[in-house]
């Protein structure tokens, strides 16, 4: 009877270890593929200064959301879709600033840009809310200092 119990425990332990190894292997292989894809792209980061009004900023943000959606359909680049979506949420804060401060018809903003280059294929998007440096109203341009 004892030998039978020992064998059952041994089989259960073996099965548990096998499942754990297979789960780890599956996770490693699927994330390894993503890592390989990420490493095959050349990443460039720079800053771009734009002067935009609300409508222009809205279309930048909308086009970026659409780019994220397009990347989502590419199984190998879902990670890139998520990165673009996160960046778009941050960019939305700058758009919200324009909504909250309708006394300004234009802003000058320094936006960080991320580019992934894969041969002739370039994927470019604004990767953060940026820094508003100047604002424009009926009285003209003035430097902007964010106190928050």
Explain what this protein looks like in three dimensions.
55% of the residues lie in helices and 28% in strands. The chain is of the alpha+beta class and 148 residues long. Strands 1, 2, 3, 4 and 5 form a 5-stranded antiparallel β-sheet that branches. Helix 2 runs antiparallel to helix 3. The longest helix is centred in the first third of the chain and has 39 residues, at 2-40. It is elongated. The model is unreliable at 31-36 (pLDDT under 50).
Task: List the defining traits of the structure above.
alpha+beta; 148 residues; 3 helices; 55% helix
Topology:
Layout: H1 2-40, E1 42-52, H2 54-72, H3 78-100, E2 106-118, E3 121-126, E4 131-137, E5 140-143
Antiparallel strand pairs: 1-2, 2-3, 2-4, 4-5
Helix pairs in contact: 2-3
Short characterization:
The protein is of the alpha+beta class and 148 residues long. The chain has three helices and five strands. Strands 1, 2, 3, 4 and 5 form a five-stranded antiparallel beta sheet that branches.
């Amino acid at each position: 009877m004892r030998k039978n119990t020992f064998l059952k425990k041994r089989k259960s332990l073996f099965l548990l270890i096998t499942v754990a190894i297979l789960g780890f292997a599956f996770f490693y292989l699927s994330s390894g593929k993503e890592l390989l894809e990420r490493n095959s792209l050349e990443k460039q980061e720079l800053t771009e200064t734009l002067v935009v009004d609300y409508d222009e900023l809205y279309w930048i943000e909308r086009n970026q959301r659409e780019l994220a959606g397009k990347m989502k359909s590419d199984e190998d680049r879902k990670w890139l879709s998520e990165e673009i979506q996160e960046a778009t949420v941050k960019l939305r804060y700058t758009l919200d600033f324009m909504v909250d401060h309708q006394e300004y018809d234009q802003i000058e903003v320094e936006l960080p840009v991320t580019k992934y280059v894969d041969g002739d294929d370039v994927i470019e998007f604004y990767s953060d809310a940026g820094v508003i440096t100047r604002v424009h109203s009926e009285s003209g341009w003035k430097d902007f200092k964010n106190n928050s």
